[in-house]
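Retry 2 of 3 after timeout on previous attempt. Resubmitting structure tokens to design endpoint.
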């Protein structure tokens, strides 16, 4: 199954999914109006003025200007050369001041989760205030990418350079100074930035995945590093005056993604969240507490492997996953979604939770929840007829990156765990 990818913010845009539209962006870089060097001033001749160059008394000036005009008349009109920065089709309009509605460049833009995700990039006012040190921090990432490319070409220090870049990508995710101006000026969304990593098969799979995740987030302006962005917590007390907290999605949060679709969507293998409600925000899952999410006649969209006493078996590439207990031989709605998926053979997103017992799964994340790819329901068995308890067999779809549960590529990363520790006290008090 083809992996969904966002389009390139630069030359060589790629179209990988059917959910694409063409966005026309005006490129005025090739339209430059030739203007006369000098216009004559309407002035009557005086005793010491020249008719052709009124007001000039210096013979040397008249001679120099006459020579300039003669050369201009002899040479054919030629378009002014366009600088490299002005030739970029996605450069902000404010970078050049020429007539509009000239050359039209068409770029394929992913509009599945956001409308015209490239348009904001072309309309950023790059003259807004920004810090030089912040820009230098971001552009240094491009230098590290170049170092890795050179290491691959020369065959030296690849492991070292990859390790340095890996650490930097993990840190970039939590930079709290990112703005649209810095994103544009850093050029990390252009060919020399993140695409230079995830389009290069010589890079380790986890580096490519991390770069792709940052590219997708930033291209949709999701650069807020707060793990609980878009989550609202309300405090209250019960009858016994015991305080409690409730968490819900902010209805005004503009970047919520729907989970009502089959397949990965904009998710990247290894993507991680501290709480299940965060998976709803980003379109990975659709239930606050339930482990199976789907729609009638559509099957299941996603499942979460978690603790809870079910007879689940996690072997990584193959999962045996239980439905929920019904009554009077009738499967529950959640079990029905899995039965429909078995019939429809539509891909199901699988997330693993840290609540899995370590003795039952070596693939569990250290904290929170992790997206581990798409699976297909290949069969099922009836464990208990009285409660209509079914157990489904899911096979991981081929062609995906390995599950990121160990080694340098493991998620959550050290930076994610550090951010989790910052809010851990708050999370425990709000449970």
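Retry 2 succeeded. Sequence:
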């Amino acid at each position: 199954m083809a992996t969904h990818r966002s389009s390139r913010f630069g030359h060589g845009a790629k179209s990988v999914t059917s959910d694409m539209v063409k966005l026309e962006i005006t490129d005025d870089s090739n339209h430059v109006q030739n203007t006369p060097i000098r216009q004559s001033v309407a002035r009557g001749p005086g005793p010491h003025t020249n008719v052709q160059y009124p007001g000039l008394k210096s013979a040397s000036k008249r001679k120099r200007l006459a020579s300039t005009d003669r050369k201009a008349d002899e040479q054919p009109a030629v378009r002014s050369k366009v600088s490299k920065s002005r030739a970029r089709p996605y450069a902000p309009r404010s970078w050049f001041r020429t007539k509009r509605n000239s050359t039209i460049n068409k770029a394929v833009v992913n509009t599945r989760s956001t409308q015209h995700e490239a348009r904001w990039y072309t309309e950023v006012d790059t003259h807004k205030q920004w810090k030089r040190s912040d820009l230098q921090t971001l552009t240094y990432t491009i230098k590290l990418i170049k170092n890795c490319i050179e290491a691959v070409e020369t065959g030296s220090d690849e492991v070292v350079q990859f390790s340095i870049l890996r650490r930097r990508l993990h840190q970039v995710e939590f930079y709290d100074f990112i703005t649209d101006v810095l994103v544009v000026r850093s050029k990390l969304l252009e060919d020399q930035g993140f695409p230079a990593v995830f389009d290069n098969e010589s890079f380790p799979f986890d580096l490519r995945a991390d770069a792709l995740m940052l590219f997708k987030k930033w291209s949709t302006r999701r650069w807020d590093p707060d793990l609980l962005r878009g989550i609202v917590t309300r405090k209250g007390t019960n009858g016994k005056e015991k305080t409690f907290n409730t968490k819900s999605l902010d209805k005004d949060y503009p970047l919520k993604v729907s989970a009502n679709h089959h397949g990965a969507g904009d998710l990247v293998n290894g993507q991680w969240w501290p709480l299940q409600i965060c998976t709803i925000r980003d379109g990975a899952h659709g239930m606050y507490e339930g482990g199976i999410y789907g729609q009638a006649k559509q099957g299941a969209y996603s499942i979460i492997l978690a603790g809870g006493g079910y007879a689940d078996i996690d072997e990584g590439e193959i999962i045996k996953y239980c439905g929920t207990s019904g009554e009077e031989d009738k499967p529950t709605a959640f079990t029905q979604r899995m039965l429909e998926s078995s019939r429809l053979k539509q891909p199901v997103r699988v997330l693993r939770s840290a609540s899995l017992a370590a003795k039952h799964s070596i693939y569990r994340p250290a904290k929170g929840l992790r997206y581990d790819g798409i699976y297909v329901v290949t069969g099922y068995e009836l464990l208990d007829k009285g409660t209509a308890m079914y157990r489904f067999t899911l096979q991981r779809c081929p062609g995906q990156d390995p599950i990121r549960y160990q080694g340098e590529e493991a998620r959550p990363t050290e930076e994610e765990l550090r951010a989790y520790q910052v809010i851990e006290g708050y999370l425990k008090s709000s449970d």
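Attempt log closed. Confidence is low (pLDDT under 50) at residues 1-8, 10-57, 77-116.
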